[in-house]
Each structure stands twice: as C-alpha cells, then as structure tokens.
Design a protein that fits this description.
The complex is a heterodimer.
Chain A: E1 12-20, E2 31-33, E3 40-42, E4 48-53, E5 59-63, E6 70-73, E7 82-84, E8 95-97, E9 103-105, E10 114-117, H1 118-121, H2 129-133, E11 140-143, E12 155-158, E13 171-174, E14 177-179, E15 190-196, H3 199-202, E16 213-218, E17 228-240, E18 259-260, E19 278-279, E20 295-297, E21 314-316, H4 322-326, E22 330-342, E23 346-358, E24 365-378, E25 383-397, H5 409-412, H6 422-427, E26 432-434, E27 437-438, H7 455-458, H8 466-472, E28 473-491, E29 496-515, H9 517-521, E30 531-554, E31 557-583, E32 594-620, E33 624-635, E34 644-654, E35 667-680, E36 700-701, E37 718-720, E38 728-740, E39 745-764, E40 773-797, E41 800-818, E42 827-831, E43 840-844, E44 851-857, E45 875-883, E46 888-898, E47 902-912, E48 915-918, H10 919-926, E49 953-958, E50 964-969, H11 971-980, E51 988-990, E52 993-1004, H12 1007-1010, E53 1017-1032, E54 1047-1048, E55 1055-1065
Parallel strand pairs in A: 1-7, 13-16, 37-40, 48-54
Antiparallel strand pairs in A: 1-4, 2-3, 2-5, 5-6, 8-9, 10-15, 11-12, 13-14, 15-16, 17-22, 17-55, 18-19, 20-21, 22-23, 23-24, 24-25, 25-28, 26-27, 28-29, 29-30, 30-31, 31-32, 32-33, 33-34, 34-35, 35-38, 38-39, 39-40, 40-41, 41-46, 42-43, 43-44, 44-45, 46-47, 47-52, 48-51, 49-50, 52-53, 53-55
Chain B: H1 2-18, E1 35-36, H2 41-55, H3 60-68, E2 72-74, H4 91-107, H5 111-132, E3 135-136, E4 151-152, H6 154-171, H7 187-203, H8 215-226, E5 236-238, H9 247-251, E6 258-260, H10 262-270, H11 276-279, E7 280-282, H12 306-315, E8 320-322, E9 334-337, H13 339-351, H14 359-373, H15 381-385, H16 393-404, H17 408-418, H18 444-449, H19 451-459, E10 462-463, E11 473-474
Antiparallel strand pairs in B: 2-6, 3-4, 5-9, 7-8, 10-11
Helix pairs in contact in B: 2-4, 2-5, 3-17, 4-5, 5-6, 5-7, 6-7, 6-8, 7-8, 7-13, 13-14, 13-16, 16-17
The chains are: A mainly beta, B mainly alpha.
Chain lengths: 1066, 482
Amino acid sequence: MFCATQAFAQNRTITGTVTSKDDGFPLPGVSVTVPGTQVGTVTNDYGKFTIKVPASAKSLAFTFVGYNRLVATIGATDIVNATLETNAKELKEVVVTSGYGIKQTARSNSNSAQVVTATELNTVRQPNINNALAGKVAGIQVRSQSAAALGRNTEVRLRGASGFGTGQGALYVVDGTILPNADDLNLDDVESVTVLQGAAAAALLGSQGANGAIVITTSKAKKNGGLNIDLRLGATWDKAYILPNYQNTYGGGNNPNFEQYVWKQGDPDHWKALSGKYYPDYSDDSSWGPKMSGQEYIPWYAWYAGTKYTGKTASWVPQPNNAAEFFQTGVLTDNSLTFNKAGDDYSFKLSLGNVYQKGIIPTQDLRRNTLNLNYNYDLNKHLSLSANINYVNQKQHGVVEDGYANQSSGSFNQWFHRDIDMGIMKELQNLQYGPGQYASWNHNDPAAWDPANPTAFYGGNYWYNFYTYQKLIKDYYNRDRFYGNIALTYKVNNDLNFKLTYRKQQNTTFTENIESTELAISQTQTGRKGGYYTYQSYSNRENLEFLATYNKKIRDFTVNANFGTDKFNWTDKENGAQTVNGLTIPYVYAISNSANTPSTYNTRIKEKYNAVLGHLSLGWKDMIFLDGSLRNDWFSTLPQKKNDVLSKSAGISFVFSDLLKSQDKWLSYGKVRATYGQIPKALGTSNETFGYGRYPGAAYNVPSLKYAGQLIMSAPDQNVDPDIHGSTVTQKELGLDLRFLNDRIGISGTYWTGSETGIPAQVNVNSASGFSSILTNFGDVEKKGFDITANGYPIKVPNFSWNISLTYSNLLQDKVVEISNKYNVQQIIVAYNTFNQVPYLVQKAGYAWGQLFGTGIARNAAGVPILDAAGFYTQAKAVYFGSVLPKHTGGLQNTFTLFKDFAFNFNIDYQFGGKFSSLSNAWGAFSGLAKQTAVLNDKGNPIRDNVADGGGVHQVGVDANGKPVSMYVNAYDYFHNNFNNGTEDMFVYDLTFIKLREAGISYRIPVKKLGISAIKNATIQLQAHDLWLIYAKSKDYDPSQISAVQGESGQLPGTRGIGFNLRVGF
Amino acid sequence: MKKIHIYSLTTLLLLGAVSCKKPSDFGTTNLDPTAVTAPVTSALIANVEKNLANYVSTSTYAINGAAYSQYLSETQYPGTSLYNLPQVDFAGQYSGNLYDCQNVINTSTDKNAIAAATIMQQYIFWVLTDDFGDIPYSQALAGIKAITPAYDKQEDIYKGILSKTAAAVASLGGGSVPGDVVYGGSTDKWKKFGNSLIILASTQLSKVKPGASDYAAAAFKTAVAGGYIADNSDNFAVPFTADYHNPWYGLYDGRYDWGESNTVTNTTAALNDGRTVPFGGAYNDPAKGSGGTITSAIGVPYGLGRTDANNFINANPGWAYVMRADKRKFDSPVIVTSAAEVLLAVTEGMNIGWTAGDAAGTYKTGITKSFEQWGVDAPSASYFAQGGVAFSAKNLAIQQWLAAYPDGHMGWDIWRKTGFPVLVPAVGHSNTSGLIVRRFVYTSAEAQTNGVNLKAAIARETGKAPGTDSPDNAVWWDVLGQ
C-alpha cells in the first residue's frame, strides 16, 4: 500500500513556507495542491511544506479556512513561499489536536472537540490552566480552589461525573506527554488547548482518556527573521473575599456572664490591678459569652506580664472583621522570558517562567520556576530530530491545612471568640510567659492558676495565637518535575513518515515538617508534641512510542492514517519517617531524636502497559469524512488471565453547506457530525495510576513496630473479586456546527449520551460479613446532555469591535441506574464530611450521581418537622438532600476592541444546581459564631434571650402524634441539639453561582510611533480575577471554590485578585 | 537503495516496540513487595490482644457505659453523659478484630491458636451484644457468602458465646498459644480466662434465666469446676509498651475531657474504701501525665451541662482524673478480666444456688483481691463490718461495680442487671425522656447496608418504646429496663 504513493509521475520537488499576512507567523495545516491534479499536501507545524509535482505543473494553490485562496506561480527555483490574507470571514478555522499529536482540521473532525487558543486562554492571566478554562468550554465544570490554597490542584469535570468515587478529573496531555495535573504549566508556553470530551474523542488515548482529556500544545518558534525575545511581567494582589457571616453581638466563652476576679495570695503580683474586675470564660472556645456592649472587662492578654496591656482592662466590643484581618494581602508575581529563533532547517524556543506567590496566611509562600525548550532540527531531507524538554521546580513553605479545626479558617468559622482584637493578636505574637512558652487567647480561667505550673493557666487550651502558630509550624515542600520527549522522524516521502518518540516524566519530591517544641510546651490540651517528619518520593514514567503517519490525497479522496505502538513503564518509590510522641531532646528536629520508635513508611509501585493503536480518517471532496480509531492495551494491573482491553471510536461528519448555493450568504458553513466511542478502563481510581495492587489485593501489611516483641497484623477488610476488570465507558454524540452571515456568527451544538458500566469499585457491604467491602465490578451510570457554544461579532465597525462567546451545557441526566443487583446492594457511602452527623456523599441506585445523604430532621408526609416533647427536631436516619452535580454550567466571554489598541475583556461563568454541605457552618452554629445564632425571633427579641423573657428559637412542627406544635426553645440548646442529634438540614447549601471571574483592560503601546526601535510590540493590561460573585444562593462560601466534592470542611476563603500584566516583544 | 532499507528498518522498529515478550506478560509487576498474602497467625493473635484492652477502657463500647454507670463524668463538652443519642457503629469491629479472630479460626491448624482466637472473639461479641441487644452473630463473619447477615436474638447470641467458649476451653492443651503476649502462651491460663468469660456472661443472665438447672447455670457450673481466674497473677492483663500506649494514658495525652465521677468518690468515701487512693489522680499533679502519685477524691459532679461542668473544673483545680497517674502510665497494663470480678460473679452464682459454696467468704476474697489488684492495703475487718459492705445482694452488686472500675462495659452491665448502685440520672440531660441510656441504637450505615435485617431486629425491641430503635429500650437480659 505504501507503494501507491509512487504511482504518479513526479519530477520536481517544491518546498516553501506559508505565513499569515496579519502577523507574519507561519500557518500550519494549509492545504497545498497543484490545480487540475490530485497532487496535494498540507503544511506542517512550522508552516512548511514539501511537495512533488508533475513537470507540467505551473502553479500551486493554497487554501485555508478563514483565508483567501492563493494561487502562486511555480518559478525557476524550487521554492514557493506564500503569504495568505485573511478573508472577510471573521471566524477562523481551528486545528484540533488529539492523542499522539495527531492533528485534524475542525472541518474534518467528527467530535465536538473545542479548542481554546492562547489568546482566549489568557484574556486575563490566570496562574492555573483550569481556572483559565472556566466558562470557555461547554461541558466543563471547573472545581476551583481558593487561591489561598497554595499549590493545590484544581479539578475539572467534563460532561458530568462518572465512576463511583468522588469522581475523576480529566487527563492532561502536554505535547503528547501525559501529566496527572497541569498546575505546573507556564501558560505563556501554551499555544492551544483542545478539550476532548470523553470516550469518543479520546479513544486513541485508551483507558486514561476515558474521562476526557485536555490536550495542550506548547508553542514553537516561528520563522520570521532573527531572534525574538518576549518578556512578560505580571503581578496580582489577592485579598480574602467571601467569608462566612458571623454574629457580632456576643463574645467568647461558654458562660453568658462575666466572673469577678479577686486577687488572692499566691496569684502573680501583676494581677493585683485586675482584682475586682470581670473576665469572660477564656478557656472554652465558643462564643456563647456575654453580650458585647462596651463594658469594662479583662482581656485575655492583660494577664501576661511585660506588655503595655499588663494589668489593664479593656472594652468588650464587637470585632466584626477580626477573621478577615488575619488574612494578609497575597501577592502573586508571574514573569516569563521567551527566546525564539527559527531557520530553514531548525527552530528553537526557550522559555523561562517564574512564579512567586505569597499566601494570605502569614509565612506561607510558593515559588515555581519553569523551563521549556522546544527544538526541532532537520538532520537531512528525511530525518528530523525534535526535543521538548520541560523542567519545573516548586518550593513551598507552609502546607495548606484547611480541614476541621485548622489554625485559621478552621478556628474562625468553627471555634472562636467574636470579641478578639486581631491587631493585638498580631502585636503580641512574640509574647512569652516562660522560655519558649507563648501566650494564647484561649488560655485557662484564673482559678486554674498554679504557681508551680504556669502553663496550666497561661498555655493554649485548644488554640494558639494564630500568628505564633504559623511561625512555629514549619512545612517545606520541594518538587522537581522533569518531563518531555525526544523524537526522531523519518520522512519517507511527502505522504509517509515514521516517528519514534521517547517520553519521560520524572517527579521527585521532598517534604519536611517541623512541629516546634514551643507548641508542645505552650499548651494544656492541644496534644501537640515537638516532632519531625520527612518524606521523599521518586516517580518515573516512561513511554516508548512508535507512530507511522500516512496522508494522501487521491482524486476526491483524502486519507489520513496512523498506526503506532506505545510501551509504558512507571516506577514509583516513596520513603517517609516520622518521630513519634515527641522529641527526646527538645528543639532537635531529627528522626533519630524521636521519643518513641519512629514510624517509617515505604511504598513501591510498578505499572506497565503495552498498546497498539491505529487511526484512520477518510475524506471525500473535503465534504464528507469518516473517522475511526482502535487501540488495544495490555495492563500489568489487570488479572493476567485477561489483561487486554480494546478501545474504539468511529465518527462521520458532513459539511452540507458545500452543497448549498447560499454558502457565502446567510449560512456560510454547516456541518453535521456523529461519533461513537467506547473505552474499557484499567483499574485506576485517579489519573496517576492504572490501579497497582488493587488486584489481587488482600495483602497483609507488615507494620514496622513490634508490639511487646511480637509482629502484629490485621486482616484486610476488602475482598477482591478474582475476575476484576475495568469499567467500560461509552459515549455517543450528535452535533451540528453552523456559521452565519459570512462567518460572523457561529453556533455549535452537541447532544451526547454516555454510560459507564461495570465500575471496579468497592461495594460497601455490611461489615458483619467480616469484610467492609468487596472490590468488584458493578454499577451503571447513565448520563446525557447537550453543549452549546456560540460566538460572533455583534458589532464590528472600523475602530471598534465587540466579540462575544457563549457556552452553555445542560446535564440532562447523570444517574446511577444500578449499584449491584448481584450483591443486592443499592447504595454505597462514598465520603463523609469529617463528622458523620454532617450530610455525606452516597451513590444510590435510581438517583442523580453523587447524592448528599445524612441523618436529618424527621418530617411527616407533608414535610412538617416532627418535634420532640421539648420542641427539638427528631432525627430521620437517611434524608436525601440532593445531588452534588450542577445541572447547568457555562460562561460568557466578551472582548471589546477600540482603535485596535485598547481591549476590554470580561468573562463570566456560572453554574446552577448541585448541593454541598458545610461542616464549618454546622460547627459555627454549635459554637455560637454564625450569624444565625444571634438573630431576632419573630417576636422581635434576641433568640439568645430566655424563652421566659420572649427570647428563644420559634419551633413549628408536629409532635409524635401529628398534633401541631408551636413553641420557643432555648437557642443554645437548639443549636447544640442540632449537631448532637444530627439534624443538620440547614447546613446543606446550593452550588449555584454567577461569577465575574475575569476582567481586564489592555492597551497596546504604540512603540513604533514612540520611536522605540528596540521594542517590536508592547501591551499593558490591568486585570482582575474572581472580581465579583454576582449571585450565589449560599452567602457564606463561594460555591465555585468548594474544597471537597461532598462539601466544605473549614476551607480557606476565596480571594479577589487585582493586578497588571506587561508584555514586551523585542 | 533505500526504500527496502527504510521499510525493513521501520518494520524492525515496529516489532521491537511491541514484542520482545508477549505484550500481555508482566510477571510479578503487580505484586506488592512490601506485604504478604498469607496471614501470620501469631501476629493476628497479638494484635487482637492489644485491641481487646480498648473494649474495656476508652472505646465507645466501654466509655459510654462508664458514663451511663457513672464511673466517669465529662468535664468540657458533656454529651455522652447527658445521654446524647448513642448512635454507635459496630461495623468496624466485625471487619476488624472479630474477623481477625475468624481468620485465625479459618486458616490456622493450631488448635490452641484457634481456641484463643475463639475466646477473644466471643468476648468481643459479648461486649457488643450487651451494648446493642440483637446483632449479627450466627451468620456473621462468613465473608462475601453472607453480606447481609441476619441479626440474632440476644438469647441465641448468649447461648453461642457460652457454648463456643466452652468448646474452645475444652480444646486447649499441649503446646502453647502462638503470639500470646498476655499469658506467654500458657494454655492453662487461657482455660481460666475462657471459664471466667463463661462465669461473667452466664451470671449476666441471672435475672432472666435464674433457674439452677437452666443453661446459664449449667454453663456456670462447668466453668467454675474447670478453674477460673481467682488470683491476680492470672488476670487477663494486656501489656503496653513505649510504642503502644495504654489507652487511659492516651485519653489524657493532650486533652482532659473525662474525670472520675463524684458518684464513685462519694461511694468510696462513704465506705472509707482504700481504693479511693488509686481510683482518682489530681489534675494539678505535676506528674499527672507521666506517673505521679497525687490522689484526688474531688470527683467531677455527674450530669452537669457544659457551663456548669466548665465552671466546676475551673473552680476545682484539684479535680480527679480517672485513676492516679501511676496506674495509667503509658506502659501500665489494662486488665480485661480480673480475679476480683470473677470471684464476685462466682459469689453471685453461689448466692443464688447455681453452685454450692461459701458465698460470703468468696465475697470477701473477691473484695480483697480487688484491693490487692489496686495495690492498696487489704480491707480490714471493720471495712467488711460496715452496713454498706456486709454481704447482701445489693452490696455484692456495689462491690462488683467498684471492682470493675473503670471498665464501662462491666459497670453498665452490673447497673442494668441489678439496679445498683442507685443512680440519679444526669440533671443536664439532653434526651427527652431524661432516662439513663440502656442500650445503643443502630447507625444510619446499618440501615444502608443491612436494612431488612435491621428492621426485623428493631421490630423485636422491647422496653419503653417497643418496636422502635430507642436508647430507652432494654436488651433481652435487662429485666429491670423492660
């Protein structure tokens, strides 16, 4: 078959480069043909082409969507360069990149693959690619994280969720190398992003592509004469934005009254001045204390000697901003420098990026340096060598803790005193009452004074001074990631080439944690001990790929075929050690200094796969296209007896507008497309693994610590099915792409259905069987939805244009059809929100994917709460609160351009539907911090007043016999009972939001006019991210940044960032 | 040239990339080099022994009982002692320790190992059924063959405990118990422990199956005859080490949520009981965490709400921790079953005519062994002569309650069975009924994973709210709570 290429009489080889007249950049994917013949080729990534033409050929025709057709005469030399001019049409054709770097024009593509260009991605500079994609791609749900959570990965869901865990995010493919996340990427290196939605689009990637893939192509140098240097400088200032609503009426402690302090013999002398004065309950960390009305009291710090506040009283006044004041202004600087140069037979690009991020929590920062090298060199006519090498180093101080009772948001929102003056807290962060012993706002009450043991009074009861704590807890994290590939391409002729690629992704990390001795000696009940922890990991992923590519145009037919193999090998080794029960010698942070035998940790993982893959695309008259792919994988992680899986996809697309006469009028482009894809997965539960060790499972770990000289062991709680295999993901879609009014408006719609069956997950079974779960294949998740994207120019006049893009997707259904009929299990509990009193995540047959279930308020058939005799809610064991998946997601991007030099962008994204539970608010209500604990009741009286005095919470419901009840209950008891009794319905919130995520104004500095010859171009931009949460049903948290799938558990507040960006080209 | 070369080269590359070996052959790649696939019997036994101490100390299964029987008071965040809904999960015990025992029974060929595993397994079942009432038993631990095991009636569970333990005792002998860190492998001592379990469990039925010829009495008689723990040297005392800490030590390693209840301090004070000294340790003992010897008899008032409890401990810096610090050092043993507990149970059997013997004398021996166990001087004749001590069914119950301190499973069992000591319910109670909790209720997770069988079990509940899952209901043997 290869010999077919030799069938034509070809006696001349023409080479050349095709560039765009607009910017002088090379154009890849341009079709080059000899008019009147079937001879043709397309330009490569660098806009270059080589074509063998018959001796009779007089000219070459260049066609590319969005550009005017150009016919260039073949002259005496064998070089024909072409410069294409954009046509009147406004919307450009895009190039879709799928697995293994295979490129297709959008015209021939049968999927809804959406492409985001660098410009669209970076309308406003985001440090993270997922946030930058939010709202710009239909069918994507970005689960952002607070910018305060340094170094945390964000996740995206493509077309809803599947699987039975908390869900699995998309895969990231950077120039063909698979990365578990793309947070390391310098966005300045990105040329385009193709989002492959699910199985049909990503079948060529096999198992790992089943949940869709985000394919990132980095930019390469373009030949436009000489060396180009691009410099970008950016800085953003971030401030805590959305915090929970607190009550500002009652102060700290669990005692609604002050106690009087009377100095007695044995008490410190400096307390004498306080004798006769009143103090609140310092030791309890709730805010059920006295009403704050400016009365004189003894503040927590007055008891410590040696400050200007010693022995002095203060006024008991609200501190409404105390939590917000703790969070400092974060700074993000993000700079990069790029060198580009390309010649006839080489191209070279080197970029250096640097990110420095100062967190909003004092002492936390992150530094990241990235290096990206793209190099291509033609060794001779046939052989070319390319290398893509990336190195990332990230260093982080301070690890984000944002779970229950963490020492910032976990306190402010769960356990805190509303009267605390954060300014004085900051001022007194170095205050000590003994050597290395630090003062705390949450110390004991003066009756605990014991001259022999000052810590019993002065030490932190549950909490430290937040500033002191951040200084004393020292977390350090370093990661070196090296990834990329080198490839050798052998170009047999114009139609056929072979490429051999070696890829590598090596990630090494070093983690160190010091828990300072000071924390141990400054406390009464925190249980903190001095300690040291260290952990190192080495991970190396290697692929050896072979890919043959054949492109040919025969009369009306075009053939694009690929065949390849892929051999993968992953080695992971991890070691860690930790001191146990403190340190033998204080202040010496070393494993060997552990008070007890240190604990050690050692993991080794190996995974492999072998794959054979093929892809074929056939086109007829550039109008009808058939597309198909097959891939067979063998996995080391599957049972040996059946470890191969076959992924497949097929598609068709038809550009029907070519048949219409009206082509350039109202309907300038119309295409229908349909695809089908099926991917059987391996056993992995994340993108990092194919499921090492899940089979055969049932291993007995060997603990390093002997118990009284004996080895101890415990039986595994999971039973593993010997026939375990991966799930099967299937997706079908039907799409329509239309462009109107000379391509001024474009609309694209896709209806899709998908399913995942036979999911290898653990069925939680009743543990009385002896096993808590069975790892087996079960379940059926069926989903369907539609995605719409629209874009166009509502206004385009000289010197002004308005471009708008809209995305909308509707998750019509994402339903758990079956859990396991085989084991008669209809539901599984997936994840708790720390405490089982708070609604948790369940997968139950017949319900939408990811349900919040929990103990809740028992209600009668009419939904009226059933109250007990005292007026409190009674408990129902399993209440359904709704699915965690939003139903509608999308965004809106606007760009206004004025005089070609000014551009104004704003990007809105939204989601509607979906629930989360809030652990912080559950505790905030229990602790009397939340606003709802200090409101007025329907009589107009404070609910914290005694019921007898007209206070109390009004409870309306029915009693056990169904008789209506209306009564007032004590507020303290009401909020305590809700938690203790697990009737927490009011802490389930809605994920709905509309957000102005990005806004920017940029100005192209007229360097030429200003006569600055050294500078080619320069742009300055003022920008903002997370500027305005326009609408949200839940007022306490930003629903676009919920830390866990089931909900919030003490997460850091989201931030609003404002900054600038300067781009200069030399 | 070259086409031939090129094509052969690519063919070679292509084959090279895929083949060499069969693409499906990965050898042992997927086997974890850091673990084994077959269990080590001795390691399973040692692990369960270690964990058994939890059942009688700080686990929810015990400490809640210690709160309900007023051994312990809460100091900072009272909840359990105010009768918050005791929705307790038992699932982890089945897949954990109970199955570890079953694993020994299923995989070992060593009859002593199997017998020791059986005895410990039945001990755990005993604790669980006393907490809940009906629980999965006969169909439990059968692996994936029975993933929704039926709940057995408590009476059937008791019969099973008595007979399986007896069979295990009978099979012990020759050689030793592998991995045993409690008795050093001695099968004689394991026999005594097994018989002691039978004695304690059978006498728990003395109100519901009092007949001297009934199965409880029969099991009791055989066990007494077979020899039981009658001396402190035979106590089932679980050792702890620098790496595995005594759970009571752990309870105070950081926080101090629990204190000795004033119900205990009032009782010991009234009896002028020498055990006052080791039962409570002072909060302000400088060595309270490392083994100090400062006693406290300032019991924390039982059943106070949070504000009152906080105020009490703030105003009484010498309030009592559970046990004096030297009795709960990191490496202090935890006694699962003591000579005193067993002797006092034997006393009861003698007293109600299950077996012949000197009940009053055994009673005194039992009390004396308790004093000895706590390291205090033997009780004097005047101690025994007090009205509050002199042998009677009521005083026996109170002495059993004192001897079992602070084992909440035992304390709660004794109170529920006998009504002694007479307890005043928590004044700050959070439950509507204001009654002392008589059983745990099942969790939401049980409803999710074994709903049908759970429903049947709930339908069998009797007591204050029959047919519903209520903490005010009574387990089968709890005659007083019906």
